[in-house]
Every structure is written in structure tokens, then in C-alpha cells.
Amino acid sequence: MIYDLIRDEIKGFKNYEVPTIECMYKMDANETPFGLPEATMNNLQEIVKSANVNRYPDPVSLKLRDKLAEYCGTTRENIFVGNGSDEIIHILMNAFVSKNDCVVYPVPSFSMYKVYSQIAGAKNVEVALKDDYSYNVDEIINTINIFNPKMVILCNPNNPTGTTLDRDDIVKILKVNDGITVVDEAYYEFYGDTVVDLIGKFERLIVLRTLSKAYGLAGLRVGYAVSNSDVISCLNMVKSPYNVNSISQAIALSVLEEGRVDEKVDYIKNERKFLQDGLKEIGNLKVYDSKANFLLIEFDDAYYVYNKLLEKGVLVRNFLGDKILSNALRVTIGTREANSYFLKCLKEILV
Ligand SMILES: *Cc1c(COP(=O)(O)O)cnc(C)c1O
């Protein structure tokens, strides 16, 4: 059987299945409800033309990196662009993590940390968040001291809990960790705090960002890493030559040139408050504070609520089978219309 030939590390893996579910309001994947900026939309023909799709894309995304460097207050030597930050996590593992190296990451958190470190054959050491889903910094530091990991991954704000790590705590971790420290800032724009400015001070710090969330380009797959130029060189050694396609590079550049997304981010933050306040008025659930564009909510029976919401046309994220989050749902903040409808449905379901 072909299965006998598969690498040991991958045996027992399930496909990362994201079923396509019809719904009226898609609130499951932390995407933005907004489309492309109008100017980009009106310019699409020019943008596609300038992308010269008969040629291979720029392998090092030069223009896009210059723009991202400007956005991050750094230089192009400090920026690496990937086919989504997912790909960069994979590239990071390929560059730095050997079989049996130790990788430390929080749980619950973004599921791809585990997937890619398992593919690398690493020894995964998961550090649980506290009961209120805040980071257990002492435990992370203990774990680093015991296991001397090759890589420590922190997700800030954390997906799917929305909780954050203070800058001081990240610095504490950077000081004790002799390996790589990855800080995944996928939701940076909603949070507002960053450690990008520390890349000059800590040479093994890698900050991950993405244009999939606040910038609304999930379908184009553009993520980036910010780190010192030596780390960026290591990533370039193992990446596929043409990892980011020309259309994605060109549209990402145009969207960034249209300016910051502050207004859209403010809208979502305001809606986050609207949703959280509304949820607090409904009994039989617990909602957690979040610094991202989603809220984590616990129920007595999350699967029942999930199915009832779906019947009413609202798709949220469930964590069926998860040890910690089996009774939680994660709802992505949407438009006022979507959020109001979500609240109305929940009230009907939970009476
Ligand atoms: C969504 C998300 C990503 C993936 O972003 P892409 O750039 O779309 O691959 C990475 N990390 C976290 C924590 C996320 O929530």
C-alpha cells in the first residue's frame, strides 16, 4: 500500500479539511467583510497588465518588500514575503528545525504550528494557557530552561482566544531563549502593539505578519516575516523560487499604496465592543476579552449552538474534539448587519 511509503512523521495525519458550507454570514475564518479598496478595484486591469503574467514573478518580491518595510519602519533586507504566513511557518521549520529538535508553542493556539513542526519531525512541547486563556509566561520560561528548544512560537494576539502577551513578557522570553523566537502578529492591526522594533536588538526574533486579516487579502496568500537580514537569508535558502505569484504581489502593493486600514480596523473594533456588550446580556454563555477581530465564546453545549446557528445561516468556527475548547465557538467580527443577526439568533437559540 502506498501508505506504507509515507514518512513516519506524517503517518496518522488527517487532511486539513475546511469544508465548504453554504451560509448567509461567514463568520468562521477571521477574514474581513470588506472588499478591495475602490482605487485598486478600478485599476485592476492596469495592475494585472503590469504583473506580466507571461513572465515568472519577481522571486524576491522587491517592490512589495520595499512597501512592507516602509509600513514596518525597517528596510527591505529585513523583510521576507511568503505565500501566506502559513508558508513562512513551513519555511521557518525547513530552515531551522531538524528531526527531534524541540519546538515550543502555546495551546490552544493556531493549529498550523503543530502541523508543521510535526512534519519536520520535531518534538512538540505544548505550553497550556491559563484557565482564563492568558499566557503562562513563567511556564513558558520554565519550559525553555528545561528543553532548550530550537524554536519558540508565540501568537500575539493569540488565535483563537484573542488574549495577548505584554511586550515586557516577550522580552523576558527573548532573553532566556537561545533558539529562535517567532512572534506571530497576524492580528497586529487590531491590537496595535508590536515587537517589530526589537529585531535589531534580538537577532533570533522573527515577527510574522499577514495581509489576510486586517488587509483583507486572504484569497491572495500574502504573508511576511520581519527579522534581521541573516535570518532572512536563511529563509531565502529554502523557499521555492517563485513562491508569491505576480498578481498577488501587484494587488498587495496597490492595496498598501492605498494607505493604512485604520478606518476599517476602527469599524471592526467598534463592532467587537457592540458584539461583546450584546453577548454579555445573553445568559448561558461566557465571552472572553479579545484584541483581535474575533471573540471566543463558551457554551454549555457548543455543538448544539453551532448547528442551530448554521440552520439560521450563520457559520462560526467550532473546536469539536479539542480537549480544551470543545465547548467554545469563535465568531469573527463582521458588519453591523451580520453582528446584529448573530446576536438575534443566539438569543433565540439560548432562551
Ligand atoms: C490566519 C492566521 C495565519 C495565517 O495567515 P495566512 O497569511 O493567511 O497564511 C497565521 N497565524 C495566525 C495566528 C492566524 O490566525
Description:
The protein has 351 residues and is an alpha/beta fold. Helix 8 (188-191) links the parallel strand 6 (180-184) and strand 7 (205-210). Helix 6 (137-147) runs parallel beside helix 7 and helix 11 runs parallel beside helix 13 (336-350). It has a 7-stranded mixed sheet, sandwiched between helices. The protein has a 4-stranded antiparallel sheet with strand order 9-10-13-12, with helices on one face. It is built from 13 helices and 13 strands. The chain is globular, with a radius of gyration of 20 Å. The chain has 2 domains: 2-30 and 262-350, Aspartate Aminotransferase, domain 1 (Alpha-Beta Complex), CATH 3.90.1150.10; 56-257, Type I PLP-dependent aspartate aminotransferase-like (Major domain) (Aspartate Aminotransferase, domain 2, 3-Layer(aba) Sandwich), CATH 3.40.640.
| Class of secondary structure makeup | alpha/beta
Shape: globular
Strand order of the largest sheet: 2-8-7-6-5-3-4
Q: CATH fold name of the largest domain, please? A: Aspartate Aminotransferase, domain 2
The CATH top-level class label of the largest domain:
Alpha Beta
**Overall pLDDT, averaged?**
96
Q: How would you name the CATH homologous superfamily of the largest domain?
A: Type I PLP-dependent aspartate aminotransferase-like (Major domain)
Beta-strand percentage?
15-25%
Through-space gap between termini: 53 Å
Protein name: Histidinol-phosphate aminotransferase
Cofactor: pyridoxal 5'-phosphate
Pathway: Amino-acid biosynthesis; L-histidine biosynthesis; L-histidine from 5-phospho-alpha-D-ribose 1-diphosphate: step 7/9
Pfam families: Aminotran_1_2
